[in-house]
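Hi, here's the filled form for the chain we discussed.

Project: internal
Contact: R.S.
Residues: 311
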Amino acid sequence: MGRYIITRCIYMLTALFVIISLTFLLMQLLPGTPFSGVEELTEQQIAQLNQKYGLDQPVPIQYFKYLANLLQGDLGESFKYQGREVTTIIAERIGPSALIGTQGLIFGTVVGLFLGIVSAVKHNSVLDYGAVFLAVLGMSVPSFVFAALLQYYIGVRLGWLPPALWEGYPNTILPSISLSVLVMATVARYIRTEMLEVLGQDYVLTAEAKGLKGSTVLFRHVVRNALIPVLTMLAPLAVGIITGTLVIEKIFAVPGIGEQFTSSILINDYSVIMGITIFYSAIFIVTIFLVDLLYGVLDPRIRLSKGENRE
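And the returned structure, exactly as it came back:
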């Protein structure tokens, strides 16, 4: 296990290095500089700012300087918000995105598992058809459509919850529900498909023949094995939701990291673009690694080493 973790860490660092390098080089292809679109600045002032931040130097020099600073944990300063560190901006913005994303992920996963399990157990029944309909609806209709409907009917017409802004916990409920729709639909569809396949396996029939309780067979054998492909699908989806969804944040005026990332691209704020990209990539890579470790919890056979398999 120790050797496996070390090897995976090397792979993760290599992948992160490639992402950083490609992102840095692609940014150089963006037209203009962070200061070229500011009408208040003269050409001389723009040249001075480029010189101050080293943007007038050759790309290789900028690249190696950035890597040197990055190794010291320095993501640089924002060009738009001068004097503000990128790490500070990310720390301020990730909170709202993580809150609504985590709530949406938990709610969507719980409801999706419930619908998927009921649909598989009650196969070809009214409950099955209803769960499948909800899953297809959630997969087909974009989340921002549900967001607009929730905002109008729940927030404006009925006045049960705040329709927008970021002033307290009630403001997080509608965005979280909007984000949970896709999670719910995806989990329900995957868990239903996998459970229907597992229910026909020989080991399930053997467990039933031994006289085990239906609930024991269902949760210990069927659901547990059906969760493995669901976990594979859910991991990248969770990272995307937790680290910010631009459209939902725009609709509900959530000051999240997704909105910050988009606005930084529009004004060529290189340091913020790099910082958020590195942050997102690191979370994604670590999440995939943790999912691989969780496979061994769900299926003990995956924990076996090569030597044990040969024995």
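Let me know if anything looks off before we file it.
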